[in-house]
């Protein structure tokens, strides 16, 4: 990378809300002639902080470059408020919750998924939350909620039965749950 240090004029740093201060310093030092452009959303994930790191050290070393740059108004900003990939109802929900109503949906209203009615789920909104109180168990450093996985698989099977040829993804955020669900997924 050393041979490129003087050849880079512009650095586009995407997902900048997750960019820790120490990494920003390192990349700016590596490419001293480059102008950094931070692309991100302060309402999204912050940089990872080791929970064992002392708070003062974390604030200094990790911080949030994007949050600091936008909060203090030290840099020109170009707000991108048009949402192209998300259904209108979800954009409006996110806009009202996190963006003071400033987001603009490009997509029109989503179709109702009447197939969800047969699963006893709400069907008039593109976003459905299923709240439960199922117990979870710890597996190494992860968590597993077996009943939640079983419900997700049942919903997926029901949706595939009601809507032939559709594909369904079940996303899990804990490694233990991913492992459990991959063992339980239906055969193709």
From TrEMBL:
Keyword annotations: ATP-binding, Helicase, Hydrolase, Nucleotide-binding
Keyword ATP-binding: yes
Signal peptide: none
Gene Ontology molecular function: 5'-3' DNA helicase activity; ATP binding; hydrolase activity
DNA2/NAM7 helicase-like C-terminal domain: residues covered: 78-179
Gene3D superfamilies tied to this protein: P-loop containing nucleotide triphosphate hydrolases
Entries under InterPro entries matching the protein: Coronavir_polyprotein_1ab, DNA2/NAM7-like_C, P-loop_NTPase
Matching SUPFAM superfamilies: P-loop containing nucleoside triphosphate hydrolases
Tree of life domain: Eukaryota
Pfam families: AAA_12
Protein name (database record): AAA_12 domain-containing protein
UniProt source species: Caenorhabditis japonica
Lineage of the organism: Eukaryota, Metazoa, Ecdysozoa, Nematoda, Chromadorea
């Amino acid at each position: 990378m050393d041979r490129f240090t003087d050849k880079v004029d512009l650095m586009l740093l995407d997902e900048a809300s997750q960019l820790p201060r120490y990494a920003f310093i390192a990349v700016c030092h590596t490419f001293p002639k480059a102008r950094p452009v931070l692309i991100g959303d302060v309402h999204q994930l912050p940089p990872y902080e080791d929970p064992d790191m002392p708070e003062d050290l974390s604030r200094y070393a990790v911080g949030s470059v994007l949050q600091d740059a936008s909060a203090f108004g030290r840099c020109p900003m170009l707000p991108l408020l048009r949402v192209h990939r998300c259904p209108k109802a979800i954009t409006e929900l996110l806009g009202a919750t996190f963006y003071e109503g400033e987001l603009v949906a490009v997509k029109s209203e989503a179709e109702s998924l009447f197939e969800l009615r047969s699963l006893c789920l709400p069907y008039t909104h593109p976003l459905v939350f299923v709240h439960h109180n199922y117990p979870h168990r710890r597996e190494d450093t992860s968590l597993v909620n077996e009943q939640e996985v079983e419900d997700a698989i049942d919903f997926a099977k029901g949706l595939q039965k009601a809507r032939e040829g559709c594909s369904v993804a079940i996303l899990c955020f804990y490694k233990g749950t991913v492992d459990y669900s991959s063992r339980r997924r239906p055969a193709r």
